[in-house]
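Example for tutorial group B:
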């Protein structure tokens, strides 16, 4: 099981320290552009086709306001533009690093 020991914003990156001692740094812009929520990634319609909305970002879209732990498996990030519905699993975070 993946364990997150520490997370902090350094400049324009999210720094993560994992239970095995490894560290990774993910640009905030990358995090926001890969937000896993349905509003950003789309969701299936009644026929099963994924409907992906157009997402417009501003400078506020890439400013992280807060980080909340979700269980022992994910982080929920709140952005300065008010967006906060994405839950980033530890696996997703590691894949973005």
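The residue assignment follows.
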């Amino acid at each position: 099981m993946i364990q997150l020991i520490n997370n902090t914003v350094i400049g324009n990156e999210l720094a993560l320290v994992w239970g095995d001692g490894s560290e990774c740094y993910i640009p905030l812009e990358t995090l926001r552009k890969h937000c896993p929520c349905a509003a950003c990634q789309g969701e299936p319609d009644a026929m099963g086709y994924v409907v992906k909305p157009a997402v417009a970002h501003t400078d506020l879209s890439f400013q992280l306001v807060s980080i909340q732990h979700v269980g022992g498996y994910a982080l929920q990030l709140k952005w300065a533009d008010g967006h906060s519905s994405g839950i980033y699993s530890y696996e997703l975070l590691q894949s973005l690093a």
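The helical segments are 28-33, 38-41, 90-96. Compare this with the pattern of hydrophobic and polar residues in the output above.
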